[in-house]
Amino acid sequence: MTSATSSAPPPPNRTRQGVLFGLSAYLVWGCFPLFFKALAGAGSLEIVAHRVCWALLFLSLTVALRGQLGAVLRTLKDRTLLLTLCGSTLLIGVNWLTFVYAVENGEVLQSSLGYFLNPLVSVLLGFLFLGERLNGRQKISVLCAILGVTTLTIYLGKVPWIALTLACSFGLYGLLRKIARIDALVGQTVEALLLAPLGLAYLLYLSHQGNSSFLAGSLRFDLLLPLSGMVTAIPLLMFVGAARRLRLATVGFMQYITPSLHFVWAVGLFHEPFSRIHLLSFIMIWVGLAIYSADALLQGRRNRRKPQSRG
Description:
By secondary structure, the chain is mainly alpha-helical. The chain has helices at residues 3-7, 12-30, 32-37, 44-65, 69-77, 79-104, 108-129, 136-156, 161-180, 184-209, 219-245, 248-254, 257-269, 276-310. The chain has one domain. Helix 4 (44-65) packs across helix 10.
């Protein structure tokens, strides 16, 4: 495909579909605190175990319907690719567990902070591991994020480990998935295959001990725990649909919907403590994101002009 072709704007219908898919994915992710708050009473490990096992069932059916079972099998036979996916599986498992822990322990504000930090962490990881250069604006955006986290650390008297774990685990996860170069759905299915045995073993252990929340007489848990697999897998599929139809910059701007909603739920609904120092820290990070987004927008415009100048 020539550069002129790749820079052409997608058809209007395709763009509208992409926007719909992207908004839906990020809105669902943004409402995750509400969903997992409704599972209060079940342990974090139990919730994640159910999430993995039910997601595997849903993803396997989707892969089968799309005729991609062969791709999953080929991935499992590729040792190098499988090793990379083992690393990404560990990271996404840590991310899920940390997020559920944050929701259950009234730390949704840290979840919001973590996902606001994520794009800036990704920029830093690209610099450290992929040899990507940081221009002046990107350096300032990363510095703003560091100042925001440092300010909050000094105020709290402890490192905001939940936010940093979420940001770093998801940033490293994205880095490994970039290196892996595998279809998103196939990769997610393989990751679920790798995690599911551990999840199933833990669920069987809970059932044997009589401590399982599932099928223990609560209709709420019996409905929501299996549903956790679907709400894990469906936004991913919608995100993939959006990424294939939209420019990367458009998808990048949409990603701020999720932490913004987490912020609204944390402060407005869950009434988590939010001091002036919290606000100052968030403002520093928001400024960094604004600079980063403006830089991405400018670079995108320059890239779209290059093919035109050749003609």
